[in-house]
């Protein structure tokens, strides 16, 4: 069986489109019907060639949903960059013993245009078949090419819609605050995390300028950052305090990027309030320890595992007749 040289990557590319075994769609059915009418043949297919089968996303004039790849005419068509045509299968050594030729549906004529995706992988074909020998006219060949390109565009669009669906799920389920906003200070779209973190109803946030909810001490910095985005700066990372429905403030760390044509800002924020509180408590603890360390009248020191002094308090150093800096680097055994 002929195999494309990039077969593993080709099959992987086909699976990425997530279109195999999907329900019929009228957009594809219109293309196969047009192909059948233009080429004046009874059978037309959008065929996707997997590693072991060809599956028909759309079909006219054929009842089966798929066939084994071993007997598929399309396995040859995907080896080509342009139209592949078999005028009379009974006179072609590659196909004359094929069960699709020797028995129902008794194929004689085949023409298939490879559906080559933007990465160069031929994932299937738009093909037309007949039960009598024939040859397509140049106009019919060009029409089949155009319809094939349209079929591929539908497949790419199908994948894009799938990605949008997954992004929609991420938007709804994310614990981070995700939004579309304007440089005018108003949100355009919000995910549910805004309500979960801040307590505000979506309707209130959409009709209220977010500048009103920024802590007064952070407002000017926020205005400056928004101005940077409005001027075309690609990405901004900044933090501010944002008022909650209960009157408290949460610390939000933002990453935002503008859409130049609309002026909209696409942004995501992470609630770093707990991290800020931990930083504050750590700083407070360090200050308390430093104060205790320096005010102690006895010897206080910090040393490493080898006994080398890293820091010594003033009172302890003076009691030994040294300045603190003179003791740093000495070992305990040295003194």
List the helices and strands and how they pair.
Blueprint (H helix, E strand, L loop, with lengths): L6 H10 L9 H14 L3 E7 L3 E8 L5 E3 L5 H4 L6 E3 L12 H4 L6 E8 L5 E9 L7 H36 L3 E6 L4 E4 L2 H6 L3 H6 L8 H15 L5 E8 L5 E11 L4 E8 L1 H23 L5 E3 L5 E4 L1 H6 L4 H4 L8
Antiparallel strand pairs: 1-2, 1-6, 2-3, 4-5, 5-6, 7-8, 7-11, 9-10, 10-11, 12-13
Helix pairs in contact: 2-5
Shape, principal axes of CA atoms: elongated
Number of helices: 11
Percent range of helical residues: 25-40%
Fourth-level CATH superfamily of the largest domain: GAF domain
- CATH architecture classification of the largest domain: 2-Layer Sandwich
Average pLDDT for all residues: 91
Q: Please give the radius of gyration in angstroms.
A: 35 Å
Major β-sheet profile: 6 strands, antiparallel
Number of domains: 3
Question: How many strand elements?
Answer: 13
- Major β-sheet strand ordering: 3-2-1-6-5-4
CATH class of the largest domain: Alpha Beta
N- to C-terminal distance:
86 Å
Which structural class should the secondary elements be placed in?
A: alpha+beta
CATH topology-level fold name of the largest domain: Beta-Lactamase
Name the beta content range: 15-25%
């Amino acid at each position: 069986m002929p195999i494309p040289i990039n077969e593993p990557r080709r099959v992987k590319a086909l699976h990425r489109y997530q279109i195999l075994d999907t329900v019929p769609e009228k957009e594809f059915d219109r293309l196969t019907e047009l192909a059948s009418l233009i080429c004046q043949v009874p059978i037309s297919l959008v065929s996707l060639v997997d590693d072991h089968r060809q599956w028909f996303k759309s079909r006219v004039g054929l009842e089966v949903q798929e066939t084994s790849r071993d007997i598929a005419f399309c396995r040859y068509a995907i080896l080509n960059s342009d139209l592949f045509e078999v005028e009379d299968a009974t006179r072609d050594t590659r196909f004359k013993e094929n069960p699709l030729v020797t028995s129902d549906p008794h194929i004689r004529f085949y023409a298939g245009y490879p559906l080559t995706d933007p990465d160069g992988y031929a994932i299937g074909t738009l093909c037309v078949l007949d039960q009598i020998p024939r040859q397509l006219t140049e106009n019919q060949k060009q029409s089949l090419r155009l319809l094939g390109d349209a079929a591929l565009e539908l497949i790419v669009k199908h994948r894009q819609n799938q990605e949008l669906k997954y992004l929609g799920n991420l938007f709804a389920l994310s614990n981070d605050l995700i939004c579309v906003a304007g440089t005018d200070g108003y949100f355009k779209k919000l995910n549910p995390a805004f309500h979960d973190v801040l307590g505000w109803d979506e309707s209130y946030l959409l009709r209220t300028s977010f500048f009103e909810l920024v802590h007064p001490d952070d407002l000017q910095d926020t205005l400056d950052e928004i101005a940077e985005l409005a001027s075309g700066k690609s990405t901004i990372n900044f933090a501010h305090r944002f008022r909650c429905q209960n009157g408290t403030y949460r610390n939000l760390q933002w990453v935002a990027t503008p859409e130049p044509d609309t002026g909209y800002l696409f942004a995501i924020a992470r609630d770093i309030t707990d991290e800020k509180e931990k930083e504050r408590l750590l700083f407070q603890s360090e200050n308390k320890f430093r104060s205790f360390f320096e005010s102690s009248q006895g010897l206080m020191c910090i040393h490493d595992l080898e006994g080398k002094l890293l820091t010594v308090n003033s009172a302890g150093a003076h009691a030994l007749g040294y300045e603190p800096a003179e003791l740093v680097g000495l070992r305990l055994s040295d003194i």
